């Protein structure tokens, strides 16, 4: 695995495009995205305002807790927000639940990315390229990329 040029979080028109799925949830059309995406409702770390972000579910734990990844690294606002305020509201399709956001260790994230790549090989290569990684498609390359990215478990609260 080679680290090319790590991109900054999107701004301008690209940011609007990335935020488009949030509007689907606002219009009640979140179920169209299925279980592969979720809406994360979180609190801004400095503003204290409610924020929303749609994220791809990389995997689920045995207990069903979604695992998500910050493709733009630890600089992503949503990631920094959940570190500061880990109690979040998650919506997957039409189902909502409160959760505790738990950052995962590098080795755990590496395994989740490798497993994602086994299930979605072409998408994983394209996403890795978009995140600034050059991978050869091997499990070890995806593990190496996964060690560079922050992963979060969204553990449902009882």
Automatic annotation (TrEMBL):
Any Pfam family the entry gives: F420H2_quin_red
Domain of life (superkingdom): Bacteria
InterPro entries according to UniProt: F420H2_quin_Rdtase, Split_barrel_FMN-bd
Catalyzed reactions per annotation: oxidized coenzyme F420-(gamma-L-Glu)(n) + a quinol + H(+) = reduced coenzyme F420-(gamma-L-Glu)(n) + a quinone
NCBIfam families xrefs: hi_GC_TIGR00026
Entry similarity comment: Belongs to the F420H(2)-dependent quinone reductase family.
Protein name per UniProt: Nitroreductase family deazaflavin-dependent oxidoreductase
